[in-house]
Amino acid sequence: MKNLFVTDLDGTFVKNSVFVEKEDLKAYHDAKNYGDFSVATGRSVEEIKYIAEGNDMDVTHMIGFNGAVVTRQDEVLFEKHIPTKDLTGIFEYLKESKLIFDALDGKQRIGNFDHEKKDRLWNMELICVENPFEILKGKTIYKINVRPTKEQLDYHYDIMKEKFPEVEIYKSGSTRMEITAKNISKASGIEAIRSGYDRVIALGDSGNDVDMFKVADISYCMNRAPQEVKNQATHVVDDFAAAIKHFVENYE
Fold it and tell me: How far apart are CA 85 and CA 121, in angstroms?
């Protein structure tokens, strides 16, 4: 049986968003004995490469920006950026609401968000200015991270979901929303690569992982995730290594 493992990065395979822990890297090598290994993340393909190369990993597919860019090795299988007409309205809303954000074009993070933990940038250039909107004119943007306070999250999420129905908006943690083009998700990324595999095993920990849990044959959610996310997975485990151990013991 040909398996495809698809894992999220931050909070799942890279628990602290800085480096892969030894037990999880060992689990990756164990998983490779049973199938191909791919990554689906809200980060860019370049950041996936940074983690893969830094840990000498063989990653078959890279699903970046929650599905907006999908590659197999160096071949781009699919890409879709946020349309200009939608970007214009979103940026106007962010400006009027004085929200903190960063917009990603695949090479840079551009916005008014000054990342306090530079070791989590994974070799990406951060451009943080008070008024980033002029810089963003004409840029091809695949994803926007909006960073309200915990108290503001639901308020702005509800307004933006209603105001911008032509894009996808996900909650990612208690202080962040992620915006991509319409019909883009980690699930759409998996559908672009699943041909030829008998089983897809998905691993994640956040709201943007729910869609891929639904299309996977087996799914593992990290125990630290919100309850509504855990409810969508086949299994709930403590960490990535525990997920692979469970898979080997119960499905192989």
Answer: 29
Nearest Cα neighbor of 65 from 49, 79, 50 is 79
pLDDT digit string (tens) for 200-236? 999 999 999 999 999 999 999 999 999 999 999 999 9
The full set of domain ranges for the chain reads 3-79+185-251, 84-181
Q: What architecture does CATH give domain 84-181?
A: 2-Layer Sandwich (3.30)
- pTM for the structure as a whole: 0.92
Per CATH, the homologous superfamily of domain 3-79+185-251 is: HAD superfamily/HAD-like (3.40.50.1000)
